[in-house]
Amino acid sequence: MFKNTGYYFKEASTLFKIDFKTNLLSILSMGLVLTILGIVISGILVGDNFIEILSREADIGVFYSEDLNLVDRLAIKDELKKIKGLVEIIEVDKEESLKEMEEVLGGDKDVLELFDENPFLPYFNLKVELDEREGVLKALEGIRNISHVRDNNEVVEKIKILINNMKIIGVFLAVAVSLVSAIVISHIIRQGIYLNRERIETLTLLGAPPSFIKIPFLIEGVFMSLLAGALSALMLFLLIVLFYSKASSMFLPLPEKGILIVTNVVLTVGVSLILGILGSSTGVGGQVGE
Amino acid sequence: MIETKNLNFYYKDGTLGVSDVNLNIGEGEKVFITGESGSGKSTFLKLILGIVKPSEGEFTVLGRDMNKLSKGELRLLRTEIGPVFQEFRLIKGRTALENVAISLRFTDVKKKDIYTRSKDFLTRVGLEEKMKTLVDNLSYGQLQRVAVARALARNPKLLIADEPTGNLDHDNAINTIKLLTDLKEDHQTVIITTHQTGLIPTDGDIRRLTVKRGQIEDV
Predict the structure, then answer these.
(1) Set of chain B residues whose Cβ sits within 8 Å of the Cβ of A14
(2) Is A141 exposed, middle or buried (CB count within 10 Å of its CB: 0-12, 13-18, 19+)?
(3) Of A14, A199, A209, which has the smallest distance from its Cβ to B75's Cβ?
(4) What ranges do the domains of chain B cover?
(5) Is the ipTM value over 0.85, yes or no?
(6) What is the mean pLDDT of residues A248-259?
(7) DSSP assignment, residue B53?
(8) In 10 A of CB B178, how many CB atoms?
(9) Which residues pair with B212 in a beta bridge?
(10) Distance between alpha carbon B160 and the CA centroid of its chain, in Å?
């Protein structure tokens, strides 16, 4: 079974060298295509991370009248404590509420000086377990003296829908890019077979089994695809490092750099291997030894 | 070894290939098929190699019915035949040694014997100095010798050579014929087509066939 293993690899290398320039350009184009795939996958990962962080940050604000006395305020707090799914209850007074807004406005906080007095209301900031959110909101409806509830979840849901739509486009792009890679590899193999048609014909007339003729082409295709994968992994690594160095000054909830790099390298090389096998198999299928 | 009964072959456009051939070629025979260009000599060898299938009649090669051969059986049959093609059909970009060795890789020859055997046969055809030369850099005569070495190294039951002297000068042509007839083992059958009747040895054990308008007969 392994009688010709060495020969197959040597032959694959010879086939690669025969059309060296074309093969090199093919690897480069496949590498770029796989890099696009990596960028799309990174986009999906960043989107997921963004949704998770936003969901975590989306607290519920429970507002009450400024005139409410301490007993009634404590009564609200006691009722809140009874609600299932609350992680933390933070009491925010008027001053803290103002400070929060100043932080949100950043450089534009001067606008707040236009007010004669602090326009912000005290409130209870509720940290909620994500799965219990709906139940908490329902329970709040039955508590007396609550003037209104601010639920950031609406914004999060809108962003989620937006990101999920972008993910659908991303998945479509990933499938399209994978198909392009497989077609390119398949085409390269077919081209190789065409260039070597005389050799294939001779081997067929000498009684070579189709597998003997096909295996070097398969190895060549997988090898080229893996090289393209490695090239793409390198490009993605550099892109991620560059992006993270630029993104440090922006407010962007990014996943951990190491995780993103490892995911991309493993995915790109893995995908290139699978596409190499698929593309090469399609390329040689029914082409030789008939 | 080869048996035909009322064998006919027509090309797709209706051109006659071989017509009503009744032959029996036995083990160890040295057969020369002569005839003008286009008479049907090469077509008969194509039929033996299974490149084309008989249109009518019975045809058996090495005990196999050529009318009922599956792809796998045809492949196995071809491993038992040592062909020398008119246009050599050597693999470009490879050395003489690699060309002989590659044809042994899918036969019964053991891995460790492939190169020893290939070198041995290249030496027998007088190419010991050119083993590691790319076939692209060999002369016509040398290419023909590589082709002969490749055919013989496979230890085939049947050796077939289609106009092996067609592109060679007189001396090289005589040498090629000698190689094919002298280097073959007793059990091996050799069939050589040529239009140069002067090249056919006059030994007593040579069988001569002639082809006229597709009909093959003993001379």
Answers:
(1) 93-94
(2) exposed
(3) A209
(4) 87-155
(5) yes
(6) 74
(7) -
(8) 12
(9) B215
(10) 2
Q: Do A7 and B51 touch (CB under 8 A)?
A: no
> What band does A250 get if pLDDT is binned at 50, 70 and 90?
low
In the predicted model, is pLDDT for residue A111 greater than 80? no
Instruction: Read off the pLDDT of each residue in B94-122 and give the average, rounded to a whole number.
Output: 93
Rounded to a whole number of angstroms, the CA Rg of chain A reads 30
CATH 3.30.70.3040 in chain A, residue ranges: 59-151
pLDDT at residue A251 tops 70 = no
Q: How confident is the model at residue B52 (pLDDT cuts 50, 70, 90)?
A: very high
Are residues A207 and B75, on separate chains, in Cβ contact within 8 Å? Answer: yes
- Mean pLDDT across A133-149: 87
Asked if A199 reaches chain B (Cβ–Cβ under 8 Å), the answer is yes
Shortest CA gap B76–chain A (Å): 6
pLDDT band for position A248 (cuts 50, 70, 90): low
What average pLDDT does this structure show over A244-271?
82
The position carrying tokens 């009503």 is: B20
Interchain CB distance below 8 Å, B49 and A205: yes
B71 touches chain A (CB under 8 A): yes
Q: Residue A175 pLDDT > 80, yes or no?
A: yes
Across residues A114-139, what is the average pLDDT?
Answer: 84
Put simply, whether A245 touches B (Cβ < 8 Å) is no
Task: With CB atoms and an 8 Å threshold, state whether B105 touches A207.
Answer: no
Judged by DSSP in three states, B51 sits in coil
Distance CA B209, CA B219 (A): 5
Which of the following CATH numbers is that of domain A59-151: 1.20.1250.20, 3.40.50.450, 3.30.70.3040, 3.90.1150.10?
3.30.70.3040
